[in-house]
Amino acid sequence: MATFLIKGGRLLEGEIEVRGSKNAALPLLAASLLFDKNPEIKNVPQIEDIFRMKELVLGVKESEKIDTEIAKKIRASILLVGPTLARFGRAVFPHPGGCVIGARPIDVFLSGWQAMGAEYAYSGKTAHGTDIHSLKAPNGLSGCDFTFRALSVTGTEGLMMTAVLAKGKTILRNAALEPEVARLAEFLNKNGAKISGAGTTTVIIEGRGVELLRAGGGAFCIPPDRIEAGTLAILGALAAKKLVIRNFPGEELVALLAVLKDVGVEYEITPPNPPVFFPSLALERPRSWIGRAVNIKTKEYPGFPTDLQAPFAVLATQASGASMIHETIFEGRLNYMEDLNKMGARIILCDPHRAIVNGPTVLHARTLESPDIRAGLALIMAALIAEGESQIGNIYQVDRGYEKIDERLRAIGADIKRI
Ligand code: EPU
């Protein structure tokens, strides 16, 4: 298992390009099960979660089965269930695991598939205690009018994909607004699906019955990763003398940009200029800069993303005053703050959803383990501004979501080594 050795205190400078979006690419790969042959997808990030998803998709194509060992480790494996069920009339799958950020239930998925006519059965536990679920729809699925009890990004994507191969019309209400939902619909529509309203609260899908989509719409390019982009912007505010972030999807990051402005970060956005299709963001950190404390509350899109909450907490350690962080989406997503405190941060955990970060504080190097994708990168960011040499272990977690992050950070001046 890899570890990063990081010497803190170096000012970063240069240009960095945002890679393709993990959470846009994962559902597209799962959706390839709805096609007669592999659709062409470009700009897929080379990261561990994508490698696992490709293995899973290949496994389903070869054996009509979802591999339990891989699927139980990544939450996004739930995205395969709908397409597998719609295509083969059955799906057996482990309760998806993944990040240690909360309970991650699948109740809304199950209600949705049942509303489409699937029969659900709990199939017991594996020898290692993983719950196994099974669904069957031997006579195919039917369109339905379904309202999400709780907003769910992969829930919306999963049911939208399933509905493409159901008979008749499906209406999904209280659907997630995240841009990845609209991207998935665009991709499917490009290849013959009929989906309208994706990216709004009501999505309508005209099902095709069991007729597979024909991969003929040409290559689909995955957009830049809004979470990676936002994280790099926060890193720039923390540690860059001057940083230019290319492929910066600013329109998808309005809540973060508003917060950065309130903290006192100065940035400039250059609009796209074809053949460059995305803006870039330039940041300059004034000497001995200290930000202003700002309160944040994570929210569904277009609110402040939960996936940027941990990077923001590192920024808050460098701001003057008390910043309240309210994590409203997941209940286990503040645990990494104890590690920041070990580095010298002054964070009070009020309850599983709320914390107060008192700043500014000088951070000190420590040996720590990456708990999950996003908190892992936040610890790396803290190490980059800390005094001394840190070791951040369990880097597989970070490699799940960020392509060759060590090489790319080194290219802008970070002192970071993989051992
Ligand atoms: N929820 C339920 N029942 C369900 C499903 C979800 O109660 O059946 C609850 C969850 O417990 C949570 C809330 O609904 O409290 C929102 O969860 P959601 O289902 O929207 O999350 P997700 O689809 O599993 C995606 C991203 C996450 C991101 C969240 C929130 C992918 C592959 N994952 O997860 O990304 O944090 O939306 O925006 O798109 C990451 O990339 O590191 C990551 C965790």
Break the fold down into its secondary structure elements and pairings.
Blueprint: E1 4-7, E2 12-17, H1 22-31, E3 41-42, H2 48-63, H3 68-71, H4 78-88, E4 90-94, H5 107-115, E5 119-125, E6 131-136, E7 145-147, H6 153-164, E8 169-173, H7 179-190, E9 194-196, E10 203-206, E11 220-221, H8 226-239, E12 240-246, H9 254-263, E13 267-270, E14 280-284, E15 291-292, E16 296-297, H10 309-316, E17 319-326, H11 337-342, E18 346-351, E19 354-359, E20 367-369, H12 373-385, E21 389-393, H13 396-399, H14 405-410, E22 415-418
Bound molecules: uridine-diphosphate-2(N-acetylglucosaminyl) butyric acid.
Uridine-diphosphate-2(N-acetylglucosaminyl) butyric acid (EPU) binds at residues 22-23, 26, 75-76, 99, 102-109, 150, 152-155, 306-307, 329-330, 373-374, 401.
User: How many strands, what sense, and barrel or not for the largest sheet?
Assistant: 5 strands, mixed
Number of strands: 22
Radius of gyration: 22 Å
What's the total helix number? Answer: 14
Query: What is the residue-averaged pLDDT?
Result: 95
First-to-last CA distance: 9 Å
**Outline:** globular
What are the segments in which pLDDT stays under 50 over at least 5 consecutive residues? none
Ions, cofactors and other bound molecules: uridine-diphosphate-2(N-acetylglucosaminyl) butyric acid
Beta-strand residue fraction: 15-25%
How helical, in percent, are the residues?
A: 25-40%
Structural class by secondary-structure content:
alpha/beta
